[in-house]
Amino acid sequence: MSWSGWGDPARARELPEQVRTLLHDLLGVRAPAVPAVALEAVRVPPVALPGPLVEALAGVAGAEHVLTTHEARVRHTRGKSTPDLLRMRAGDGSDAPDAVVLPGSHEEVAGLLRLCSAERIAVVPFGGGTSVVGGLAAARAGFAGVVALDLARLDRLRAVDTESMVAEFEPGVRAAEAERLLAARGLTLGHFPQSFEYATLGGFAAARSSGQASAGYGRFDDMVMGLTVATPAGTLDLGRAPKSAAGPDLRQLVLGSEGAFGVITSLRLRVRRAPAERRYEGWRFASFAAGSAAVRTLAQEGPVPAVLRLSDETETMIGLAEPDAIGSGGSGCLLIAGHEGASETGRRAAVSALLARLGGEPLGAGPGEAWERGRFSAPYLRDSLLAAGAAVETLETAGFWANLPRLYDAVRLALLGALGSPLVMCHVSHAYETGASLYFTVVTPQDADPVAQWERAKAEVNAAIVEAGGTITHHHGVGRDHRDAYAAELGPVGVSVLDAVKTRLDPAGILNPGVLVPPATPA
Prior knowledge:
Strand content: 15-25%
Keywords: FAD, Flavoprotein
Protein name: FAD-binding oxidoreductase
Pfam family, one: FAD-oxidase_C
Organism: Nonomuraea deserti
Family: Belongs to the FAD-binding oxidoreductase/transferase type 4 family.
Number of helices: 18
Distance between the termini: 45 Å
């Protein structure tokens, strides 16, 4: 994983000259005045942890699994949001952990949490490092130091129950490796978010991830049948049946908790038979309103394809799926419908008939195949745009169908008001019977301080989402970036409940401090 960008550095590439010209002519984008620094030039603070505490960590995990090198600390600094990457490209490693610790078992995780709680060492659980909401930058004030708890050694498929269709994984298994292991048994999770190639299963659970095929397979939290969690207060072992009436489901307390309540050390996940074939097709609608109505009809009346996503007019025109052909996507709004499995023939025919009846124009397999080729490549395009001098970032929300047009307009207006004349694109990324998510991409020229530029825009968008009645996040998570807006969404009683849980499970407050849990309002 690139330390200052996304994914495999070998897959990074410069934008074609015609795209650079388009960015300059359309938005006024100019190349940055200062190039990105090299890894060894990143400025990190001195290790704050005293030697005896580093030795104590080594006593639990083994000396070879406690790293304090410059490179290890840089590679575990922050996540992959645009502000994260801009800071790293500028050489700002001020949020670097003091040490990176790689435990090899639940018992070692539990022992490390007991030690860190007793010694007031902040702990940031680290999976694939793909957070885009500031979820990996712990607050340092009041702590002896900060440790990144890298779960890469917890990377096993422990068991597969093909009668119950449940597989048990350790949290550090990357999604692509999980699919490879399951495919050998003819199975799949069916969870393919944009971070698929690098994110981990534990990270999916901790952030309530949604995949691109969630219309067919469900969100990741739908797949979690059980989990084991190490906390400073002890171990939680949750989920002994698919559903239960035995009080509130505490699995839901852990899902989406972003490492603030505990560290997931095992997951029992629902699996499905792997489809023999996958087919993705394109449809064109005259407007975003017409396409949204078609998506809503599919979600409410069925049948629902495994993949269902709709781009607005601007995103369709730009055509981000093919970087070499940016700006040639055509008119109207592009809908992608994906069908998985040989048994989908009848469903596909029914979906096609309904889309045609609702005004859709069939475009065949070409647009779907282009989307499939580029489904995991957008973060690489973002890196190329950043290098060219554009500030580019994504954000998402969700709301009920009746409120979706208002939410769409509110976000667009907030971005336009904050950034002047940015390029704002949107698509419906996940659809439900009662509503849908909206996923926005914004591109604008970098100003003299692009981090502050985006932070101002993000604050205005967060406020607009709350005022318009949407949720502050559908699948990116809360982290630091959404924490204050999350407090407004929860209300004071909800915030006090989160604070009470945090206090009970993590009395010293060492787990990911500053992330997720808003400061409690004084009584």
